[in-house]
Amino acid sequence: MWNTIITSLPELLSAMIQYTIPLALLSFLFGLILAVLTALIKFIKPSENKALKYPWLVLRAIASFYVWLFRSTPLLVQLFIIFFGLPNAGIQLDPFIAATIGFSLNTGAYASETIRSALMSVPQDQWDAAYTLNFSTTQTLNKIILPQAIRIALPPLSNSFIGLVKDTSLASSITILEMFQVSQQMTAKNFEPLLMYSLVAALYAIICSILTLLQHYLEKRTNKYVKGSAA
Predict the structure, then answer these.
(1) Total domain count for the chain?
(2) Which residues form the domain of 76?
(3) Would 228 be classed as within a structural domain?
(4) If residue 73 lies in a helix (H) or strand (E), which one and from where to where?
């Protein structure tokens, strides 16, 4: 058993460093950017100016449809459509790029609702106080609302990232040689499915445990100056 573990670990760690971690980081980064834009589009009220109002309403409709679509369909199906389906429309994507797009779009849809909820949780009197100081809407968002919303959204966003790390195992379904795919190939050679899959599970558990500790550290840092927060 130990010999199998020792000989398998280098390949699994290589797959983790080469595919699993970069895929999770890139997907979460792009997904977070998309989530912030989507949340702001859905959160900010349309201008009374008709020249701006109707284009903004169209953007809100697009953002709402995007969130509905990716929250209403399975992630695995989304990956299959992007990688196996788009070639029928003449769009051929590298497996890693296809996975990054799929995970980013899925993460963005879920995270946008987290960020929108965090924005809505900031009391209205924060806006009113800013306007009395002659802050514009943009200044109010950047200097007052967003910093508070980020602190509120941090725990659920951290959970989303941890979930994304585990979801990268689905990338094996579109031929990416991440950890789970490598473990499947090794199982076909050594006929040790329980050992190999347990080893992969342990590696995922280690990554997620490190991220959980980082989450707790960030929460303490962001809550440091909040009245009544735990030390």
Answers:
(1) 1
(2) 2-222
(3) no
(4) none
- CA 213/CA 20 separation, integer angstroms: 19
Distance in angstroms (rounded) separating the CA atoms of residues 140 and 192 = 58
CA–CA separation, 174 and 168 (whole Å):
11
- Domain contains 26: yes
Q: Which of 34, 69, 68, 22 is nearest to 168 (CA)?
A: 22
User: Could you tell me which of 162, 199, 205 has the C-alpha nearest to residue 12?
Assistant: 199
C-alpha span between 58 and 72 (Å, rounded): 21
What CATH number does the domain containing 28 carry?
1.10.3720.10
Say what the pTM is. 0.90
Q: Per the domain annotation, does 203 fall within a domain?
A: yes
Give 104-153 pLDDT, tens digit per residue. Answer: 999 999 999 999 999 999 888 888 888 888 888 788 888 888 888 888 99
Q: How would you class 91 by CB atoms within 10 Å of its CB: exposed for 0-12, middle for 13-18, buried for 19 or more?
A: exposed
Whether 227 maps to a domain, the answer reads no
Give CA–CA dist 201/73, Å, rounded.
26
